[in-house]
Amino acid sequence: MLYRNLFDLQLLLILSLAALGKQFVVGEKRVRRLATPSFSIDVYEGLAKYVVSIRSRTPRTFFGDNHFCGGSIVSLTYVLTSAKCVMDKRKIVHRSRLILIVAGTPNRLKIVRRQTLHVPAKKIFVPENYTVYNTNNIALIKLKHKLPSDNRHIGILNLPRGPPTTGIFYKVMGWGRLYEGGPLASRIVFIDVMLQERVICQRLLHPFMPEMMCAGNLNSTLDEEPCPGDAGDPLMVNLTVYGVTSYHVGCGHSLLPSVYTDVWYHMKWIDEIMNSNVCRMYNPPTVYFFASILLCMCGEFHFNLNL
């Protein structure tokens, strides 16, 4: 009876400390973010449709356990993400048939009938500078099948028409780890981070290249950062994607921002890729007219361009 009372007392003590926000980890020192990502039903229903889960083609054990990156829908046929998401450690692009895009599902672990879409990748585009100089961490994935335009669970983010504004808050959404060393989020979550001035980024991060941006709520108890599994997530405001999550160096650190790739910096490259597959019909009908029909049907004319 005495042991039972002692056990109950210990259990009560542990629960009380847990309620005060204390964290117990047995045999491991786990670093947490200062604040966990947020969940809002309005954001969940309103913005999740613009973000996709990038996965390996086949789940390991159950649906959703093969998620490794995020991405944003920038057209019915293209997804914008990070170059590191589509390449191996040797900087070799993954075969497109190994990558699956899952859209329309805010819950990473659930298939929703008439909502969840599974779309294989058809072609992957990565700037040459990423493979040669380890810069320009951005990629485009061309989908094998066009996303439906009449699905309310699918949305297209705008591409920027000008450079991003520093000193304001942007949203980052994805299914990355809830804290360093923690589990992946099941339902899509978001963080609000401030885009920092370039001079601050250069002081805190080395090297810091021209196409990079950094964001974080420095010196704040509300600091939130992307973590593993968030690479490729959009940095967005006003339904426009201004950045791509590249390096989550701020995960678990209160004084370091994370690095994002500047989408505006890469707009010429993005436009050239996305416009290279636009079908052009010739009038009056000539040999070029029939050739254009064949090109549109096969859709195999893709090429990469240097920045």
From TrEMBL:
Catalytic activity from the UniProt record: Preferential cleavage: Arg-|-Xaa, Lys-|-Xaa
Cellular compartments per GO CC: extracellular region
Signal peptide coordinates: 1-21
Upper classification of the organism: Eukaryota, Metazoa, Ecdysozoa, Arthropoda, Hexapoda
The organism's place on the tree of life at top rank: Eukaryota
Record keywords, A-Z: Disulfide bond, Hydrolase, Protease, Serine protease, Signal, Zymogen
One MF term in the entry's GO annotations: serine-type endopeptidase activity
E.C. code: 3.4.21.4
Sequence ranges assigned to domain Peptidase S1 in this UniProt record: 25-275
UniProt keyword annotation of Nuclease present: no
Protein's name according to its UniProt entry: trypsin
Enzyme's top EC category: hydrolase
Family, per entry: Belongs to the peptidase S1 family.
Keyword Plastid attributed: no
InterPro entries listed in its UniProt record: Peptidase_S1 (IPR050430), Peptidase_S1_PA (IPR009003), Peptidase_S1_PA_chymotrypsin (IPR043504), Peptidase_S1A (IPR001314), Trypsin_dom (IPR001254)
Primary residence: secreted
PANTHER family: AT26814P-RELATED, POLYSERASE-RELATED
Localisation: Secreted, Extracellular space
Pfam families the UniProt entry points to: Trypsin (PF00089)
PROSITE patterns, alphabetized: TRYPSIN_DOM
GO biological process: proteolysis
